[in-house]
Amino acid sequence: MAEEQATKTDPAIPGGEPTSETTAAPAENAEKAAKPRKNGVTRSVSDELAENMKQGWADTERVDLAPIPQAGHTAERRAALSARFPGERLVIPAGRLKTRSNDTDYPFRAAVEYAYLTGDQSENGVLVLEPAGDTGHQATLYLLPRSDRENGEFWLSGQGELWVGRRTSLTEAERLYGLPVADVRTVPELLRSASGPVRLVRGHDATLQDALTDKVTAERDEELRVFLSEMRLVKDDFEIAQLTHACEATARGFEDVVRVLDRAKATSERYIEGTFFLRARVEGNDIGYGSICAAGPHATTLHWVRNDGQVRDGELLLLDAGVETTELYTADVTRTLPINGRFDALQKKIYDAVYEAQEAGIAAVRPGAKYRDFHEAAQRVLAERLVEWGLVEGPVERVLELGLQRRWTLHGTGHMLGLDVHDCAAARQETYVDGVLEPGMCLTVEPGLYFQLDDLTVPEEYRGIGVRIEDDILVTEDGNVNLSAQLPRTSDDVESWMAQLRG
Ligand SMILES: [Mn+2]
Q1: What does the pLDDT look like over 258-315, one tens digit per residue?
Q2: Residue 230 C-alpha to ligand 1 middle, in angstroms?
Q3: CA distances from 430 to 130, 226, 235, 415 (A)
Q4: In degrees rounded to 5, what are phi and psi of residue 184?
Q5: DSSP sequence for 275-290
């Protein structure tokens, strides 16, 4: 009933013309708004109220905006993209809100390709590079404009500014992002009527994919996605500063956790998850991935994110967590901590072996080295220890050749890091896994040993112990820098750090 009344009393609300593609976004919004929203209160709108709500609002346009700090970098990234695809129209969407349930949405996170090329993070945004001149492109950013006061959208639509907050105006966005900005509601029609070759980053915006369905091919679109992934293998100065900040904030989050271990013991692993999340939200945008807060045997489950277990003295806590900055770059750090502050003899033996493997891995990170080198260096150390401990029959060369150590090492030793925790995932094998390290690459080195609770091939005392140490390593001109070195790594340093924090 509220729905009917809202649309009847104000026929100008977008959505009255369902055939017009350019009003698709507001139409959805108007539909949403017309439903009872928030507190289950239904709204009926008199003509007098509708008229009243149109007036008496101050002009809040900002003319004092400076470009975002990475505006120069995003321009360079767009130039590199332009040079790779001359004469082709390139469409890079931010993505849309995803429904969580009924009228609530998941927190929005812009597609990394879009954030990387624009520095913007608005839902529904689209970057279009139109061929211009002989080889270049004209880039235009398409965004949802500020809510219309005249047609009531700003207070009657669920995505109106009164509900979700003020958006930047298109003119403000031009100043912020350093490129022309236009109304995103024109994009589907623009793409439908355009001629010439087009490529789209798929998977983020079904409306654009529909609009381009006859013009794009999966193969050509994949080439665009691969290029944008490979572009990000080498980080620029802005990105390195972001990753550095992400690691610093993450280190503070780990300290927070150590300080509340007693409260975690009184509750559950959730206390650790919540504690780290608080740091991530206050210093950054979010956590970069689901925090793994794995106490005791949970440490042997690689992606333990249920985090609902007990935290007990005498066991280890494997904490794998990262703060994501406001510009969406994430750290990815793991420490394995004795919950009572002291490793026992076996825990220390296993921990020290993983530390030694990580040291060997980090030492193999330098420009010109093969990407695979640090993994192989770390695996060799772990295989040596496993043979030494009598858990697998040597010689070490045989173990490595057959991969027998992998029963307990389980995963690769690292991955690229950046806007995605597993960054550059679409890069081709020859540029990533079979590639060579270059200055500006940032990757994790994270060996581990995991003895499952039900592993009958190891002595009982090993079972239920899992250790991983993970740091974020930047390749430099002459070697590497450990961006997460604020956190201790040796077993002795971990113990004294914990003692200090717990006072
Ligand atoms: Mn990792």
Answers
A1: 999 999 999 999 999 999 999 999 999 999 999 999 999 999 999 999 999 999 999 9
A2: 19
A3: 30, 12, 18, 15
A4: -65, -20
A5: HHHHHHHHHSSEESS-
